[in-house]
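New to this. Comment on this protein:
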Amino acid sequence: MAERVYLHIGLPKTGTTYLQGVLWDNRDLVRRDGVLLPGDGHREHLWAALDLQGRKKLDRRGPRAKGAWGRLRDELAAYDGTGLVTHEFFCGASREQAERAVAELAPAEVHLVVTARHTAGMLAAGWQEMVKNGGTEPLEDIPHRKGRGSEFSWRTWDLHGVLKRWTGTVPPGRVHVLPMPGKGEPPDRHWRNFAGVVGLASDYPLPDRAANQSLGVVQVELLRRVNAHLKGFENPTDRGRWIRGYLAEKHLVAQQGERFGLTDDLLADCRRRSEGAVRMIRRKGFHVVGDVESLLVPDDLPAQRPVSSVTDAELVDAAGDLVAVMLADVRELSGGTTRRRARRSARTAPTA
């Protein structure tokens, strides 16, 4: 079995896509540094997180999704160095599932890596991610959402709850909490903190910008309403390609709208949850890389619009822009088809 295994369990929306992109793009460098990334790629770690939790309809993710956790575990069992498993969906596991994961990696020395941010930022970013993946629930309804079996709820967004479920069988010194660096920090700080914990010494090439871009308040509300009318997009691959990729991150993000924020009631709830998480981190003595105070919701959040303030007129304007660029896409596709047909006709036309 691997001598040591780092389980990076999330949380979502804490730079995980950025970190995982660096790792998978430089897998050979990771291995040269003595760390094994088991499996064939990022998707297999996603499958493993859901497989560990016994998720239903796992076959929709891919024909090899079921059994992914066992395959990664077996690959780690055949390795004698340091292993790394990373996906933010692991943080949705129950206490029993987390304990089983740690036990099945024995006799490896298991370390938990938990990337984190303050809860107000987590809620806003998590709800937007849910909408990008086809969600239709208003932001104000999220606190009442049942969490088990979902990546989009307090089950994965509440740092205190995640730490409580995952840290029962791991010594505090092996629980590494990495708060996301603030805007004034160097752009590579998050990667450097993560690499230092895992033991990656190489100078890795890093992307110029964050992997995920945020939608404006009007744009995310428009997407939420569009989602309610979509049919036949239940498959995760379709949702990722068309709702998230095409509508959200290709076209709506280009509209560059105002940032959205939380209502006073939601902010109060987030402050309570953040304070509970920081108290637990300090009481348990977890290893913190960064500023633990940054996990508290600031008193002076920048001015942001609540989603409920979006007007029908703003939605119509944004929808008009969206339809216009989509029509241009359709024209380009159909025009290309017409030209190809014309060329084929010219080649097959009888000569005089």
